[in-house]
Specification:
Chain lengths: 368, 368
DNA sequence: GTATTATATATGTACGTACGAATTTAGGGG
DNA sequence: CCCCTAAATTCGTACGTACATATATAATAC
């Protein structure tokens, strides 16, 4: 520390005086000759110190007149000091995403960070463009909800090159299993297990599932479902494990209809999310099947869909939503400030019991 | 031109060679000593030229090793070309805002623009901070949904200083009447008039309204309501013009309850938006009053609330939502590209008739 | 008092030397 | 062939000088 170069010492000294307003905005600082005497160094050394300060925007030089404290450096400092976090999600306006984004925005604005937003509509090509755009904008950190997290993603090399750079990155909701990236998510395996166990506790032994195939959340919830069945030594029928992907979502109602018409049904369903659960219950009702009297349904995410059906409020696994966004933002801010690696954060699921699930015993009693 | 300083000539020469890939990315350029010989100048002069190029990001120096062509300057160039639009709204996750933001994002991404997002939670202090932040970030355009547009806004001077700058600005949903800023919005006066006229057409003569006092939309919808009554030569009772502001929203249910208990009621209500309509209908039902059999309700915005009530789907004025966002984005992009002044865009309202309104004649018949 | 001019002052360009510090390269020993 | 060391290379710091150019100031002429 003591053997810092002279010009660095002088630079720091001048910088301090500027920031302390010893040399106030717009005023002239001592000439090179004067500073030379003051610090007892050569003119070259003084020039070197001043040159760096000019470069950093603290000073402005004017030949023949003198060197002046810039009134620009303050504003530039603010602009430069302001950090921006890029957020890439699959959807913006749908379902639980507004809440997640709100959580992120809330936390970022607390730390005076800016938020740059982009959505992929669950399309990998859009994800690529969003990533490129964010990188070009030199964001200070990235929060990404992965697109088609259960399929081979062609943008993995982008993520790899990002993880080499100092730009912190955190994944939301799910991660790419091929990469070892930090993430903030609900424990989806546990969630699927909890949902299924709730049905098992109610006496159900024939349990179907409708889940998503192209994202990791769907895969994990299925995993939890299978685990719960295995632990309870129950079997499952392949016909009642129904999987769909983003593109096939619109065809799902007719697929459900076909399934419902194909013979014996289970007494309960686990649904990937509330949207699907509402879809299923509507199809059930159309066929004269009641929920929960005939078939119980447990879903995920506890979104506004949970209470939207006139006939029945959904039993659903709570999704942290805002909290998830807040946690992701908090982690990324911490990573930006401290340059420390990010640790993943996993939320524990929680079951909200409403009206769409019912003990099977009751039904048997009625039938007897 | 001929008497340019030597170091400037050398700098330009080197810069040219870098851009022509004579010195390609990452490779070492000749040492100071070599360049000294090549240009027949002192080492100091070479260092001066190189120093400026290092500062501009073209070169990177490494003591003991050499001076190298930076691979960073290219990306910095690209980043500067990308345009960013700042979006400031009151809320992010609530109500129709996700749809609006989605529209904006969709249109901006089509033009390869970035979106910087901030919300004010309808607080003017937050609005100020958001504006400052956006200005510091040097956004290329701004889309603002005004905070408390019907109250004197303390940030008007910010907007004034903005309108002097070349940064295009467009207001969303409403504008500040004190300023003459371009905006994209629904014709709220017409909307309020249309809603009220629908009730008049159904035979209602006693019509109340619940509207918001601190934003322009509420004021305009009230204006339309009064206009419709005036045109139909109907009177209104002050007790049934109920106004509330953002802060008092949570107290609204109890205020409605008090109103409902205070004697004779109108046969119909116009509501500021679907959220309020749902609130009102719940309170009505609690008092054993049916909608639409006893009291008709027409609301605004046609949001998901319109179809959320188990008892009745709402008759509501359509809000353009996505279209509004798309139009705002399109206007701002046009303004950024062509540097032309923005013209306001006003959407015509449209009535969606559902179950919450009923002709008064029918009711009379039943009663007879 | 004002306009012009000379002088002083400030930064800009450009040369030179010397030695320090980090890195690479070449040479020598095992 | 590998490891260590010494030398060479390259940039970093720091001193010096000289003169150019732009600006401010003081002196001068009107």
């Amino acid at each position: 520390m003591l053997n810092e170069p002279k010009y660095i010492i002088i630079k720091k000294n001048l910088q301090l005086k500027i920031e302390n307003q010893d040399y106030s905005l717009g005023t002239k600082i001592p000439s090179e000759a004067e500073l030379r005497q003051e610090y007892d160094v050569s003119r070259h050394t003084i020039r070197q110190a001043i040159s760096e300060l000019v470069n950093d925007g603290y000073l402005v030089k004017q030949q023949g007149s003198g060197t002046f404290v810039s009134d620009y450096y303050k504003t530039r400092q603010i602009g430069n000091g302001k950090k921006t976090i890029g957020v890439i999600t699959t959807y913006l306006s749908d379902y639980i995403f507004p809440s997640i984004i709100r959580g992120i925005e809330e936390e970022l604005s607390k730390h005076d960070y800016s938020l740059m937003l982009s959505s992929t509509r669950n399309n990998v090509e859009n994800e690529k463009r969003s990533l490129e755009s964010m990188m070009a904008q030199n964001v200070d950190g990235l929060i990404v909800e992965p697109t088609k997290s259960n399929l081979m993603n062609p943008n993995l090399n982008y993520y790899l090159s990002l993880s080499e750079k100092p730009t912190p990155l955190i994944m939301l909701n799910a991660s790419y299993e091929e990469l070892d990236l930090p993430f903030v998510a609900l424990d989806d395996v546990k969630a699927g297990k909890m949902a299924t166990e709730h049905l098992i506790d109610l006496g159900h032994t024939d349990i179907g599932i409708i889940t998503k195939s192209d994202d990791l959340q769907g895969k994990n919830r299925l995993k939890g479902y299978l685990k719960a069945l295995y632990d309870a030594k129950l079997t499952f029928s392949n016909e009642f494990i129904m999987r769909y992907d983003t593109e096939a979502k619109n065809d799902l109602p007719s697929l459900i209809r076909i399934m419902l018409e194909s013979g014996q049904l289970p007494t309960a369903f686990v649904c990937y999310n509330d949207e699907i659960a509402v879809m299923l219950i509507k199809e059930l009702n159309d066929k004269g099947i009641s929920c929960p009297d005939d078939i119980s349904v447990v879903s995920h995410d506890n979104s506004f869909y949970s209470t939207t059906l006139p006939s029945v409020k959904l039993t659903s696994i709570e999704h942290p939503k805002e909290k998830l966004g807040i946690q992701a933002a908090r982690s990324i801010v911490q990573a930006v400030e401290n340059r420390e690696p990010i640790t993943s954060y996993i939320f524990d699921p929680e079951l909200i019991i409403r009206e769409s699930t019912k003990a099977i015993a009751e039904k048997d009693e009625i039938e007897i």
